[in-house]
Specification:
Strand content: 15-25%
Distance between the termini: 40 Å
Number of strands: 25
CATH topology of the largest domain: FAD/NAD(P)-binding domain
CATH architecture of the largest domain: 3-Layer(bba) Sandwich
Oligomer: single chain
Helix content: 25-40%
Strand order of the largest sheet: 5-2-1-9-21
Number of domains: 2
């Protein structure tokens, strides 16, 4: 009997999931090819819609899809990667910290581990900033903002109320701008339910180190986005950097220190640190060096793509941008090349020209650049929602998102606050600390890091059993 070819994919994001989907089609009737995908979550997250979760525009579970339901022929393993032994062609992984380790052998390895948040070593940022990188982050941010509204409504001190209702987002790229726009809409719309909160109590600030936001789009669209945000009462601080932060303030390079209880960091990512542990050549940006076919230069049995790889762009002569659009198409090409190698043919180079870019600005407005054409305002917003809805996998999820958006047009957004400690079974409530909460009527403060841990656990559980 012929030994099956074992293809193992590390990562269940856009890149890794699309590799598996394509391989399933290419080898659907070939029992001699085994496909395995390993990821820390058992679901695929449609990350372009993450900013709509904190604002309550979309329910968290509606932008995720169970990997086991999406990949019918692939052996999906929800596991934490422990190590990779390239010499022995083995992956060491475990389901959780309480489980034992197990070995997954491979003949061909695909690395699609994505990226992690980069805090650039700024004092206090990693400890106190919220992020918008995962579904757990987005759900935690939603509850965190509602918590601040609840606190502010009961606080009789105007200065303290303004501090509670100051929201700072660092990063003028797509993630930062879209998250800020959604949060701004949500907070200003929700204050109708809080009689003691006045519009002037709310302050929303975008901090960006560059001289314009959304630098990936045309300058005229970037300028439109800036004007739109400022018209919606957002303070945009250009050519300004975050210097440090504490639990109660953010210090900026312009000398200003802004008191606030909500600071969201969306100002940078870096390659997964696991890449540095491999004995593989890395590009100066920390990503794995691959050739134009997505094959690792130093090891013909290893392939990499997406945020994990420095992929040469044969059209521009530069590197491909680490975006979902490129990751999806790299996944298709890499799967085709794996099939070619298994069948004794030559792999083909990856070649793609960007189709366009989309960015939501809140209040039924967006900017879009598609096939060289520029759109802004309501038309761009309609295109933005339509294109992302069509790209969402699964008819059921498309329908759920469409219903969420339909309800959002006619009804106010959800302000239900699911307190995280109620979700932790068997744990006593933490004692009150007057330094972190002025209320003494049963509202228990929870650190942001614990929020993310609890939400990640709860979301994983609900996705498994939902």
């Amino acid at each position: 009997m012929t030994q099956p070819q074992r293809i193992v994919i590390l990562g269940g994001g856009f890149a890794g999931t699309n590799v598996a989907l394509r391989l399933e089609k290419l080898f659907r009737r070939d029992p001699n090819v085994e496909i395995t995908l390993i990821d820390t979550e058992n679901f695929f997250t449609f990350t372009p819609l993450l900013p709509e979760v904190p604002s309550g525009s979309i329910q968290p579970k509606h932008i995720v899809f169970p990997l086991r339901a999406l990949l019918r022929r692939t052996n999906v393993k929800q596991a934490e990667l422990q190590s990779i032994d390239l010499a022995r062609r083995e992956i060491i992984a475990r389901h959780c910290g309480k489980c034992g380790r197990y070995t997954v052998p491979f003949d061909l390895l695909v690395i699609a581990l994505g990226s992690v948040t980069n805090f650039f070593g700024l004092p206090g940022v990693a400890e106190h900033a919220l992020t918008i990188k995962s579904l757990a982050d987005a759900a935690a941010l939603h509850a965190h903002v509602i918590d601040k509204l609840e606190h502010a409504d009961m606080d009789p001190d105007p200065a303290r109320r303004r501090e509670l209702l100051t929201f700072i987002i660092a990063g003028g790229g797509f993630a930062g701008v879209e998250t800020l726009a959604e949060l701004n809409d949500f907070v200003r719309g929700a204050n109708r339910y809080y009689p003691n909160i006045q519009p002037e109590d709310i302050r929303v600030v975008l901090v960006h180190s560059g001289n314009r936001i959304l630098t990936e789009v045309n300058e005229s669209l970037s300028q439109y986005a800036l004007q739109k945000l400022r018209a919606n009462h957002v303070e945009v601080l250009l050519e300004t950097r975050v210097q440090s932060c504490t639990e109660r303030s953010v210090s900026l390079s312009n000398g200003e220190t802004i008191p606030c209880h909500t600071f969201v960091w969306a100002a940078g990512v870096s390659p997964n640190p696991r890449l540095a542990e491999l004995n593989l050549p890395l590009h100066k940006n920390g990503r794995i060096a691959v050739d134009e076919t997505l094959q690792v230069v130093a090891d013909p049995n290893v392939w990499a793509l997406g945020d994990s790889a420095a992929v040469p762009d044969v059209i521009t002569g530069k590197l491909c941008p680490p975006t979902a659009q490129y990751a999806l198409r790299q996944g298709t090409v890499l799967a085709n090349n794996l099939a070619a190698v298994v069948r004794g043919r030559e792999p083909r180079p990856f070649r793609h020209k960007s189709l366009g870019l989309l960015a939501g600005l809140g209040r039924r407005s967006a900017v879009a650049e598609i096939f060289g054409l520029q759109f802004s305002g309501f038309l761009a917003w309609a295109l933005w929602r339509t294109i992302y809805l069509l790209k969402m996998p699964g008819f059921e999820r498309k329908l759920r998102i469409a219903l969420d958006w339909g309800l959002d047009l006619f009804f106010p957004r959800d302000i239900v606050y699911l307190r995280p400690l109620h979700a932790v079974r068997g744990q006593p409530a933490a004692p009150h600390d007057p330094a972190t909460c002025f209320l003494h009527a049963g509202l228990t403060p929870v650190t942001d890091s614990r929020w993310r841990t609890v939400m990640s656990s709860e979301l994983s559980t609900s996705s498994t059993h939902g």
